[in-house]
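It is worth pausing here to work through a concrete case rather than discussing structure prediction in the abstract. The textbook approach is simple: state the sequence, then state the predicted structure, then interpret. We follow exactly that order.
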Amino acid sequence: MDSGPAMSVLDLIGSTPVLQLNRMVSHRALRGRVFLKLEYLNPGHSKKDRVALEIIREARFDGSLALGQTVVELTSGNTGTGLAIVCGAFGHPFIAVMSRGNSMERARMMEALGATVELVDQAPGWTSGQVSGADLALVEIRARQLVDKFDAFRADQFSLPGSVHAHELYTGPELWAQCGGQVDAFVDFVGSAGSFTGVMRALRKVRSDVRGYVVEPAVAAVLSGAQPRSTYHRIQGGGYAMTELPLLDRSLVDGYLAVDDDTVIRTTRLLARLEGVFGGFSTGANVAAALNLLEESDEPISIAALACDSGLKYMSTDLY
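Step two, the predicted structure:
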C-alpha cells in the first residue's frame, strides 16, 4: 500500500536497500556472498546524512544547539552535505570547512543546498585529490576559529556519539533484517569510525560472533599498527593516518584489511559496470576488501558492507 508523500526530506533519510553482489562474486569465481547497503541513495547521496540528522537531533534535544544557532563542521564533503540538508530543514545556518584536496563537486553541492563553504589550502607538499592527516589538521584549525567567531555549535563527527548512534540504532538493524540475519562479517573503510562501531554494535547485539574488519589504505594502515609509507592516498573520506579515533571501539575489531589505490579504482569501476552501483572511492574500498576476505575464507561466508557515497561526487577526479 502506498504510504503517501513524506512531509520532510528528513523523513527520507535511512531505510536504504541492500544489493547482493552476485556478479562481482562470480567475476572473481568466489564462493560466498557480499551484501552492499546502498547508502548513496540517501537524499545527500551518502551514509553521512544519517550522522548529520542524529547529531543535530540529539543536540537540539539536550539543549547544546539553540534554535537558529549556526552549525560548523569540518568535512570531506559528505557530512557537510548531510548537515546542509538537515540544518536547512531545522533552520540553522551551516558552515562547512573542507580541504581543497577534496573533489569540488562536494563544495558545489553543499553550496547549492544552502551551506557556506570554507575551503582550506592543503599542507606544503600537497597532492591534489589526496587529503592527508596534515591537511585535515589545517581544516580543524579553521573550523575552531569559525566556531569562536560565530559562537557556533560544532557538529563534531569525530567525537559526538550521534556519529555512532545513527548506525547503531538504524543502519545496523536495517542491514541485519534485510540480509535475513545471514551476516558473518562486516567490513568498513574508516573515517571517523562511527559507521564501523555503530553497525558492529548493532550486529553483535543479535549475533555475538559477527566479525568486524577495519579497512585502511595500504600506504597508511596505521590502525593495524603498521608504519605509514605515505600520508597521501586517493581514497577520499578516510584513512588519514590518525591513530587516535575516539569513536573506534577496538573490542569490535577482529582484523584489519589493507587495500591499495589501484585495486580500489578498478573495483569501483567494475562495480558500476557489473552491478550498476555508481559509488565513490570508499565504496570500492569496502567491496575490494570484502572480495579479498571471501577469497581468503576456507568456507563460503556472507559479508556486509556499505556503499558509502555516490560516484557523482567524483566526476572531476580520475576515478571515472
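Step three, interpretation. Residues 133-150 form the longest helix (18 residues). The chain has two domains: 9-46+161-314, 48-154.
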